[in-house]
Structure formats: structure tokens, C-alpha cells
Amino acid sequence: xxxxxxxxxxxxxxxxxxxxxxxxxxxxxxxxxxxxxxxxxxxxxxxxxxxxxxxxxxxxxxxxxxxxxxxxxxxxxxxxxxxxxxxxxxxxxxxxxxxxxxxxxxxxxxxxxxxxxxxxxxxxxxxxxxxxxxxxxxxxxxxxxxxxxxxxxxxxxxxxxxxxxxxxxxxxxxxxxxxxxxxxxxxxxxxxxxxxxxxxxxxxxxxxxxxxxxxxxxxxxxxxxxxxxxxxxxxxxxxxxxxxxxxxxxxxxxxxxxxxxxxxxx
Length: 266
What we know:
Order of helices and strands: EHEEHEEHEEHEHHHHHH
Largest sheet: 8 strands, mixed
CATH architecture of the largest domain: 3-Layer(aba) Sandwich
Helix content: 40-55%
Number of domains: 2
Radius of gyration: 21 Å
Oligomer: single chain
């Protein structure tokens, strides 16, 4: 991206959870200086990023930015009438297709990404796909922004993004769902709520670190516990008999279908 100076980034929806997390991450990583970051809000300006430019006018944000991140609800996107002609446009919205983004905002420099809420703690996994012909400098900037939020992969097709909407775009929701069920069972067995919460949260955080640092894939870790034939194996076998694997597959399929429908609606 030829900017002729320091990179200027605008985040439409910078007052929201994900938009704010991205802003915090790229500032912390030094990708953009505070005075070169623009953020938009809908009704009330947040009391943060006070050295950056805040506006309720999304076109004004776009006009003073080289790269524009769109972080709004997909249902609100059709009413976002912003011209980004000749500028890098990075969408973090589920379902909205590359061609629709390019036509709506009048630019062919479009990237579709899907971070998750773990961007807040710099642990998002973010897949992304680029419009045909996107330049290497735009790709470098995109990778830098997404790496600041965690880690990223450029995928081959939008179908892969649609699938990953359910697998990784849901972020902490699935581990939180497991944690909720485990906590409820612990409390039902008489544990105090705070003890149950600490036990379950520490378990999931520790498991995440273990999987991150080991070379084994998750299947190998599960098999190790099954081979030991102890209490963990008994639990795994009972969960699977109750339909655990099927339930996960059905949930991911539902998320994939929802992502496709959202794109068709746009």
C-alpha cells in the first residue's frame, strides 16, 4: 500500500467489543500510531483511545484512512454507505462475500477475515481470504493487523471461511459451553460455586496451553488418556456414547449453513 507516510487505519465499529480489541492490539503492536487511528461510534463516544480520532461519520473516517476495517453486525452492513475507492478494505463480518464488499464500497482491494473475541487477549485465530489480485503490500498489512490479535492463516476459498465461521469464529463460546456444563455438574455434586469456577477455568486454560505447546494433535492426546484406561477414559467413552462427537459436528454444520445464508442475504 503506497501511503506516502505512516499507515493510517480506520475501524468502523471501533466502539464495539471486537473493533475495540483490534484497535488496542494494533496500537500495542506499533502497527499504527494513535494519531493515525480513526474509530467510529454510533451513539456515544467511548472514553478510550483518547489520542485517536473519533467520529460518528463513517465516510469521514474512510476519507482519512489508507486501510479500513469494517467491524459491524452483518445485519447492519447493507445500510453502511461508505465509499472506499482505491483503499484496502478488511471485513471482520461473518457471511458477507468479497464481491459484495467490493461492489458496495467501490474497491477491489478487499480482504475477508474472521477474528474471534479472543482478540481481546491477543489469542484470536483468524482465517482470511483476499480478492483476486490483492497486492503483496496489502497482504503484509493484513497479516500484521491479524497477527497483532493472535495468529492468522490465509485460506484458499470463501467456502473455507464459511466453515471456519463455526469452528473458530465462535471463539471462546464452545470452551465456555463446555465449562458451563462442567461447572453445573460440579455444583450439583455439592462444590461451592467459586471452587467449581476456579477448577473448571484453570482446567481449560491449562489444557489450552498444553495443546499449544505439544506437537501432538488433539486426537493423540485423547488416545493417550484412553490407553491409560483410568477415570478419564471412562468419562470420554461415556461422553461419546451420549453423542458428544455428533453434537459437535451438528453444531459446526449449523454454523456453516448460517454463514452461507448470511452471505446469500447480502
